[in-house]
Amino acid sequence: MIVKLIENWFSERYSDNLQLSFRVKDQLLSVKTDFQRIDVFDTYDFGKLLTIDGTVQLTERDEFVYHEMITMVPYYLARKAPESALVIGGGDGGTAGQLIKMGFKKVVNVEIDTQVVEVCKKHFYDLYKSFEDKRVDLRIEDGVKYIKTTKEKFDLVIIDSTDPVGPAEGLFMEDFYRAIKGVLSEDGIVVTQSGSPFYQPFALQKAHGGMEKVFTTVASYTAFIPTYPSGFWSFTMALDYEPKPRSGEIKTGKYFNEDVLEGAFKLPQFVKDLIKE
Ligand code: AG3
User: Fold this and answer.
1) How far is the CA of 122 from the centre of ligand 1 (A)?
2) Cα–Cα distance for residue pair 231/80, rounded to 1 Å
3) Range of 29's domain?
4) pLDDT tens sequence across 192-240
5) How many Cβ atoms from other residues are within 10 Å of residue 166's Cβ?
6) How far is the CA of 154 from the centre of ligand 1 (A)?
7) Are 169 and 203 in contact (CB under 8 A)?
8) DSSP annotation of 213
9) Is residue 70 domain-shared with residue 191, that is, in the same domain?
């Protein structure tokens, strides 16, 4: 007798000819919200996987890389240790959780889609639980609007968004960076995820080019994130002074350490070429 086993796979499509596939034990959820489609899978190799509009947002196994790198790098380069942060996006809670761990006194997290938060409460409680911390103020609203109306100032602004298509498009624009400058405190820094330099050069170029119009110093850095397109990911930060590591204070994470803080800014030539004026 021939028993045919059914295999289930989730694939993120990069182009008509290329995709990254995860074999999955189960699909745990699929919802269509007012903004996007959210899915959760239980994968064999990466634990639970959260996708939005078919793109990998995080997996249990490698989320630490992204969440450490989007927080610890700007934190240790700031002139004095930041104490307050604003997270735009980040409805999974991973970024807020990392900030709390690092000792931030106040984190405002503005997520546009309440369903992202609900899904993570159910399926990624370890990340979601940061929203139960009294130092974290979760607001469900449009980040662009929030920035334009708030009177608060922040030492660090983190744009933890999806790719620059759909709801996140406005988060990669010069106007938005200008508005962010208005909510930064004196030594403030803004950082954004800026895509895969190999597959999404336009994301990096938009972020870097937009920030350059608004801030005196803009610096892109990279990290190895196995489940994102090409596994080679970029972040871009901007500020109005020369960043310098606060050596002596630097703690290590699971990915982040003092060598990574330096090395992450050493860019391959094709990446330098993408962002040169
Ligand atoms: N946000 C950035 C995910 C971008 C991934 N893009 C892709 N797979 N095409 C991650 C949210 C984690 N807090």
Assistant:
1) 19
2) 32
3) 8-59
4) 999 999 999 999 999 999 999 999 999 999 999 999 999 999 999 999 9
5) 12
6) 23
7) no
8) T
9) yes
